[in-house]
Specification:
There is one protein chain. The chain contains three helices and 19 strands. The N terminus is likely disordered. It is found in: Cell outer membrane. Pfam families: Porin_4 (PF13609). Keywords: Cell outer membrane, Ion transport, Membrane, Porin, Signal, Transmembrane, Transmembrane beta strand, Transport.
């Protein structure tokens, strides 16, 4: 009898807090994305099992004793399903931040997370986290540390403005010591009414890559970049386009480097089946190199939050005459509780 009472007491201690937190407690979420791939870079041709930025996170809101204001938080980590660790780490940091959200004035966050410039891509990338990702031909895909961002509330239920800055914290970039209150900026204005998505984004002196400089062997530079995005999503069709110009903010040894890139993507949805494709081109103005991306694939939903997929992608360089190709099949499960 005493053992039964003790079990009931322990059970009530476990259950009661979960009931109390049920309506305001944190949300645990994530996804597992695993693919079996044949990767051929022209030198090595091998089969791999890849984890494709699988992740787990927790996020939520807390009521405050201030009218219309809530505290917000998120902690998201990448997990490697295939090997169990990423360069010796069980978890590697993704988007992690804290902040405040006002019902009428907008949201303020600080931490490490995707810049407004990166997020402006919306859903144009049909092969995100796979080898067909637009990052093969488009630079500026940064998850920045020490970033502070303000996001406006939606205007007319469609328009959002995002402004972010990053203090340099004494880092040296392109020979200059960055120690000011705001050494780098990232911004975007986004229109999204569910059918049409449009975004215009700008980075100023952001520590990121310009493929042109990398091909010339340069390093340690800050970048100015402009990105324009448009996408139409209907019941059966998705069509998107992204155009971007990037250049080094300061000359490197008297030379400036500039990329111009674009991506077009599309998809056809047939009940549970989604057929998709995208093409991208980067023109490296200084070196004269060109990068080309081509990807085709299909997703099949086996449940609301689960799918299986197959795809083929190829990335080529013109002057260097290289070709990387990947064929893969896999699955993705998303979860939230």
């Amino acid at each position: 009898m005493k053992k039964q009472l003790l079990a009931l007491a322990i059970g009530s201690m476990v259950v009661a807090p979960s009931v109390a937190l049920a309506d305001k407690g944190p949300t645990v979420y994530g996804k597992v994305n695993v693919s079996y791939e044949n990767v051929d870079d022209g030198t090595d041709d091998q089969w791999e099992l890849n984890s494709n930025s699988s992740r787990i996170g927790v996020k939520g809101e807390l009521d405050l004793d201030v009218e219309n204001v809530k505290a917000i938080y998120q902690a998201e980590f990448q997990i490697d399903v295939d090997e169990g660790d990423n360069k010796g780490q069980t978890f590697s940091q993704r988007n992690i931040f804290g902040g405040f959200k006002h019902a009428n004035l907008g949201t303020l966050t600080a931490g490490k997370f995707d810049t407004p410039f990166k997020k402006a891509q919306g859903d144009v990338d049909q092969f995100g986290d796979l080898d067909g990702d637009i990052g093969a031909v488009v630079d500026g895909e940064e998850r920045a540390s020490n970033i502070v961002q303000y996001s406006s509330p939606k205007v007319a239920d469609a328009v959002t403005v995002n402004l972010a800055f990053i203090p340099g914290e004494g880092d040296t970039v392109a020979g200059d010591v960055q120690d000011g209150p705001a050494d780098s900026f990232s911004s975007s204005i986004v229109f999204d009414n569910g059918t049409f998505y449009g975004a215009l984004a700008y980075d100023s002196e952001m520590s990121t890559s310009v493929y042109d400089a990398e091909f010339a062997g340069a390093s340690d530079y800050a970048v100015d970049a402009l990105r324009a995005v448009a996408m139409v999503s209907m019941d059966m069709f998705e069509v998107g386009v992204l155009y971007q110009m990037s250049e080094t903010a300061e000359d490197i040894a008297g030379v400036s480097y500039e990329d111009s890139s674009y991506v077009v993507s599309g998809a056809v949805k047939l009940d549970r089946l989604k057929l998709k494709a995208q093409y991208g081109l980067a023109d490296l103005d200084t070196t004269g190199e060109e990068l080309t991306l081509m990807a085709v694939g299909a997703d099949y939903k086996v449940a609301k939050n689960s799918k299986v997929f197959g795809y083929f992608s190829r990335v080529e360089t013109d002057l260097a005459d290289t070709e990387d190709s990947t064929f893969g099949i896999g699955f993705e499960h998303k979860f939230s509780m």
